[in-house]
Amino acid sequence: MKRAGTRVSGRRPGTSRPPLALALPALAAVAFLALPLVGILVRTEWGGLAGHLTAPGTVEALRLSLLVSFWALGLSLLLGVPLAWLLARVPFPGKALVRSLVLLPMVLPPTVGGVALLLAFGRRGLLGPWLEDTFGLTLPFHTSGAVVAATFVAMPFLVISLEGALGGLRPRYEETAASLGASPVRVFFTVTLPMVAPGILAGAALTWARALGEFGATITFAGNLPGTTQTLPLQVYLLLQEEPGAATSVSLLLLAIAMAVLIALRGRWTGTPADRRRRPAPVEEPVTTGPAVAGSTTTGPVAPEPPNEGAPGGRWALHADVTGFTRLALDAGPGTTIAVVGPNGAGKTTLLRALLGLTPRAHADLRLGDEDVTALPPHRRHVAWVPQDGALFPHLSALANTAYGLRAQGVARAGARREAQAWLDRLGVGHLGHRKPAQLSGGQAQRVALARALAARPRLLVLDEPLAALDQTTRAHVRHTLRTHLAGFGGVCLIVTHDPVEAVSLADRVLVLQDGRTLQDDTPAEVTRHPRSPWVARMLGRNAWPGTATPDGLALDGGGTLVAAEPPPPGTPALAIVAPEAVSLHRERPAGSPRNVWPGTVREITASGSRLRVLVTSPDAPDLVAEITPQAAAELGLADGVQVWTGLKATETTIVAL
Description:
- By secondary structure, the chain is an alpha+beta fold.
- It has 4 domains: 46-265, MetI-like fold (Orthogonal Bundle), CATH 1.10.3720; 308-382 and 458-540, Rossmann fold (3-Layer(aba) Sandwich); 393-456, no CATH class; 542-657, CATH 2.40.50.100.
- Helix content is 43%, strand content 17%.
- It has a 6-stranded mixed beta sheet, with helices on both faces. Strands 13-12-11-14-20 form a 5-stranded antiparallel beta sheet.
- A hairpin with a 3-residue loop joins strand 11 and strand 12.
- It is elongated and about 110 Å long.
- It starts with 19 loop residues before the first helix and ends with a strand.
């Protein structure tokens, strides 16, 4: 029960009353904008509205306004869409000046714009005489002149709206489409435009509305000729002097059209998204390994290998000399899978993009099989790319996504869909071909992305952390699927990964990069036993300490010494590798056989499967990680801040000469 006299606030919890110093000016601004519109509504002669709007002069002006505005919209789309793409996607000198020219009609007084059009396209203008002599075209005081004037003032709305939409579209979709074999023009019409369609629609609506209401530039450049250039805004100007009531009625019509456009946009111009129904997150379904009908989740026999109609023989070796930020030589035989690993900034992504021909930071002299593709654009290299998130085209179904590369390479629609369906069946997602990417779970989307890349008949396949965004269970499923299908791939596959399980289970070779250079290129087993990079050793879960060899072991770079059984020659730069399970922990100084004993403090305890990993810091040695059982941790009474002793036998240390 509420106390007597207590007022119940209607505000939402967590909100506060706006300060009057801001609220009052804001209300005044709203009133300032609304009162003129209210004035039109109040002063409209509702009884004579129908007569005013059906008068012959008004009907003719409306017809002409629609004609001019739609022609202006068409010209704006024809010229403005490429211009917006150029501003959003292509760096070039003078871009700021071009963007200023686009914005200029929005801030220029319309009558000044009309004068500028006269001086450019009038009979005595810069181009007017040439247009009249060559094409017999006279723009001033002609309907075409009204179209030009409306286009001049309205097109910037389309360009600015579309440039913003293109700026928000991440280039990876277009780059992925190019890697599947789509030319730049095809990418523009099949990927870019559909994905920025809301921006185009918003810009087109605003452009049309602005062209419909154009007055100043039109009357200055094209005149006010009934039936020729007298549009509705110009008629309002004349009616205001002769029939104010009719002028108010026509103004109401223009106001209604403008409000209808803004309501239809529902915030797209202002950036407020329209309300959308929330879809439940897709649920990972059991993996199917054979053909399936829509809605089926039962497993079946493995589908036959889809046809691969690439280069003759279907086997493509790789030779690449990469220069620039990343500098290395890479050779691999057909069917080789190479895991590319290294710390952030090592040059992994730059290497992939150099092979794709998508970066100026590095250049790759690339030969695939017997063909040198160095000078070819990305869409003709036959290098397919699967980004980390798959980059499935959201406006296409899973089947259409998978068939995209085949269609881009000229395969007939029916044949492309058959081959795409075969790949989806083979990767266990054939029953999901009708779904859009938003209706797929993470694992399903990654399998579709892999099917799309393989269906494009690549000679080189590059995968950029394809499993990084998946949970452990889904990652295991997709890893198994990937391993199965890479076994039959006739080209070379490069996989960028930070996961040691992926590197060991999927790759024939592991390429370790550091600062854009090759640090190690060997089999997974050799890299696991003798990593030459502290980062790789730690990625594999090992302790790694760089230092310089001494007669007894290693003088560590971080301070302290390490006794080892078989050190390299003294003075050799080396890396000490110690498995966490080889480190013993004690509450008292051990009196047994360990040659390396240091005091330390427990700083962190984390679970790793059925065991615990304990981080210990010491003033006498680098930080190290020990791996013990939960029972041992309980017996030792380990917790954050507990003092312990660490022990390590000399024979448990591997020294790798660098």
